[in-house]
Amino acid sequence: QVQLVESGGGLVQPGGSLRLSCAASGSIFSMHLMGWYRQAPGKQRELVADITSGGRTNYADSVKGRFTISRDNAKNTVALQMDSLKPEDTAVYYCNAHLIATFGVRVTEYWGQGTQVTASS
Prior knowledge:
Elements: E1 2-7, E2 10-12, E3 18-26, E4 28-39, E5 46-51, E6 57-59, E7 67-72, E8 77-82, E9 91-101, E10 108-111, E11 115-119
Parallel strand pairs: 2-11
Antiparallel strand pairs: 1-3, 3-8, 4-5, 4-9, 5-6, 7-8, 9-10, 9-11
């Protein structure tokens, strides 16, 4: 059984910063792509950023230059540093991981439970 547990969401004023963290635990054989998605009320879930096991990153245009994704392969964790937050960044943020579980045979996608981020004055 694999679990992704997020932490670090909250309320911040526009222009402020937050750091999200996600830890994967359980029977993991190998971890591949990890990332963050978000879903605002009434909108579809969208990719925010992802990072390969080799450290290659990909960002949504709307967050480039403001958000930074990083990971620790030894600990199976991924983080999202969010700076210069805007009201339009308000959403539930979800951790995402593609991994092979112990005794598994294929890459499977897992999701965290989500953490609320609100940028508002």
